[in-house]
Records
---
Amino acid sequence: MTDSPPELPSLNRIRVVLVETSHPGNIGAVARAMKNMGLTELVLVAPKVFPHADATARASGADDLLAHARIVDSLDAAIADCALVAGASARSRTISWPLMSPRDCARRMEAEAAAGAKVALVMGREKSGLSNAELERCHVHVNIPANPDYPSLNLAAAVQVLTYELRLAALEAASALPAGEVLERDQPLAAAAELEGLFAHFEQALATLDFYDPDNPRQLMRRLRRLFNRAGLDRMEVNILRGILAAAEKAAGGNGR
Amino acid sequence: MTDSPPELPSLNRIRVVLVETSHPGNIGAVARAMKNMGLTELVLVAPKVFPHADATARASGADDLLAHARIVDSLDAAIADCALVAGASARSRTISWPLMSPRDCARRMEAEAAAGAKVALVMGREKSGLSNAELERCHVHVNIPANPDYPSLNLAAAVQVLTYELRLAALEAASALPAGEVLERDQPLAAAAELEGLFAHFEQALATLDFYDPDNPRQLMRRLRRLFNRAGLDRMEVNILRGILAAAEKAAGGNGR
């Protein structure tokens, strides 16, 4: 495809906040996931070990995000200027709070960011997530639907899913989301008359080859029509198929028109 | 929330195939991502290093998936029984092929799996992805929308996004009153091995008929592969096409196998 990428400035106003991350490798992997999805701002609340070679290794080219990461002492400091704060949460909590799906949460975050607000996505510790006190700092909670028998995603994997939804929300808002199935066609579609020419050629070639379904001769052409209509043939494909039919007719002593 | 989780049996018929993975840690992280999303079947095509302590460490409780992972020599062996094969692909390729978004691709994969078919998601090497020959084995290509300046996701992160969409599709299907997509099919889809048989037969018959594109002989088979992969052939359609090829070979004095 040759369309130039849409600019998604709203993503620059959505920061990812990691609270007391234990493994520096996870911080690096989060930076990579963010940059893949077009986010730029990473804030670390009291990381156990940072900077560290593991972080740089797993960042794999997103080390600019690591270099610019802000390190703060408290969650409050990380989110002070944010108008919307979403906290990643396991599904069942004693504390009831607005709980959103990643898709709905991403749309809301993106809309706020597009309107000019600073927005934060807050991720907890690898083992224990966010504390209740921290969750109460958040305006909404977001939960990734997961296998109830094994629900705990790797920290960077969770960030990947949530930032993927943020990118989709931004693309959606920019109306730049690729259509469902983009068939990168290098040839024009065959016109109906060209398809009819192909089907007539099939019928003639099959007669020349003495090939038919003895039980139901009409059924064979119906199946070929259904198959090739479903496929949506382009002009070159029609030419190739007719070329093969002509070669077969010639071999059988027909006229190979 | 206290609602009991829906059972999602379709996810058991969707396998993840990793082709020539270099880092065993990534294999472990893929297993964790899969189990988090409720998938169970992992197939490894010629992994560089496996099993390995890094794989077990990153699997982090998903080591049952590693223990049951099947190791095979070739992509063909990994997908032989699959009626739908989706390959992860970068966005721009010289060869055009049906390219789907993760969401649409997941819906289609889940619908086929729910209808009883075996389905595969094929992921390429960390550095170089899937080769063109491997991509041509796939019925559809799936691309995760990413930052065009930094588009390459970590292998396990990509699997996380794609299996997340598969889980959403399965949840969606489980809660939809009427089935989301009704596949009006009177014949089972052909498996990948049956399609390979068809393509080999095409190649043989075209040689017998002395039919080829003098400018680019390989391009012809690629176009036929693309056409028939796109169409999603059922078993009877494969039989009809092979019957026609055999008749043409016989007419040309070949063996008409």
---
Amino acid sequence: MHGSDAPGSRLIAFGGGRLDRVDHVRSNPVLLAEAFASAQARRVVLDGLEPVVVDGHLVMEPLPADGLIEHHALLGVDERQQPIFAELLADAPDTLFATPRSRALADEVPGHEVALYGAARSLLAWHARHRFCSVCGQRTAPAKAGWARQCESCRAEHFPRVDPVVIMLAEHRGRVLLGRQHGWPAGRYSALAGFVEPGETLEEAVVREIREEAGVVTRSVRYVASQPWPFPSSLMVACMAQADDDALKIDENEIEHAFWCDEAGVRAAMAGEDGAPFLAPPPMAIAWHLLRYWLDERGSEGQVADRGPSA
Amino acid sequence: MHGSDAPGSRLIAFGGGRLDRVDHVRSNPVLLAEAFASAQARRVVLDGLEPVVVDGHLVMEPLPADGLIEHHALLGVDERQQPIFAELLADAPDTLFATPRSRALADEVPGHEVALYGAARSLLAWHARHRFCSVCGQRTAPAKAGWARQCESCRAEHFPRVDPVVIMLAEHRGRVLLGRQHGWPAGRYSALAGFVEPGETLEEAVVREIREEAGVVTRSVRYVASQPWPFPSSLMVACMAQADDDALKIDENEIEHAFWCDEAGVRAAMAGEDGAPFLAPPPMAIAWHLLRYWLDERGSEGQVADRGPSA
């Protein structure tokens, strides 16, 4: 789960942010105005919700002299003590989902810039879809340096969404369960996934989703890693689970197909080999890390087993 | 992390639900109408958002003959194949936060009924606060058997919130960091906690919150367990973290006080002893389980250490 911060590294994409989020500044109008007025302050240049990259970095620019603080969110303060802002969108974004440009970013800029972009993207998309109060229908205005909105009429406060999603590999006798959604690139398979619902633990969501999508009963859920996924605001929670049985009953409304893949097949797919049984998810997806984790674990299990008799 | 389903058991409260959420029924108007029309169907009786308990169980009632399906959410189907509904609130709830009656429930009814109540409470509170579209300000209507709302004007879909919260013990040389919020009962201390923000992993949220609230730098975050917390819609994610140093710098806006407590102090508090250094959180809180987990782990570490020399 570790790696360098270089573009295309094996760090979990959209994690590894280096900004200090300076929560104490957000709610303090004096400190916030100071940060906004600072000659050091920068804002990340975006094209709508899309990243803008030059020479291997996100483009940053000084704040314009006529910029309004209420049109900006304070993302945090960087290692050089520069306050970093993002300008709220004037118009609704074209899409909330991943685009070729946003998907390419993880291979183009350092990991901590990918994380900065992800936080900005989630936050701006949330503002764009929350201009009105869900309680009373009246207009809301940004608050807390862009980390909240407040209704101008009923004063209800609203906070950015973070939607937890479980993404998981069921395992059965040395094989893992992979599925593909309708419309994915040909041959692409990945871990099953679904949103966590009110009233369930992460572990219960894992068991429910695997049963709903593939008809497989699982237990012994183990947490592996997490990833912010800014399309628009998921928190991916990657887990392993043990299946009791390998019989599949696929819900074709949810997924197009699923199959059990053995270790050799996963290794071939992760190595991008011709003739691999499936096309692996890209390294920017936490599913890639989950498959890598499973292979590494099997590797070390093999070693433990090898060492066993001589211990 | 296991326990019986009896009232007051050590199961994680609000987890352990037994309803099949029958996702395939929610989006299928024919199946949903069948479930609603079934003589088997029941709805959970609530007083606003508060539970109603008789003889150690939540009160359930048949659906009224004049009941409207669009005023109900389908919570799921129970083990006797009874579809279980909850009626949406006509008015705004008095409070979204925990009340004496809702807090008492975990000691009054079986764990799976506590879970059913929690799911209903989160869902109904969400509906009550989302009668209008955050995108355009017009009215929304319930959809998908109460698991979504849709704008009657712009057709935007809205889904129930689940807000991930990290709750964690920093550990330093055999002591754990406990804090108390302003207004808590006298002597009560618990694990630190805070909402996960867009653009961070769970692990990064743990590190950020401990640093913000107590000025302590941590690393090596480990996931322990999760809990749905329906006041109104949190998903508590409990973790351990290792502190580099025990110097405290408390943010008094966030917490009133914090201190490092040793194993003997935690054991005394968890046993409810007079003279314990703090009043432990109640067993319905995941913080209780986290403290229990830490004690158990130290116990087994002790055992491992004891076994070490003879191995």
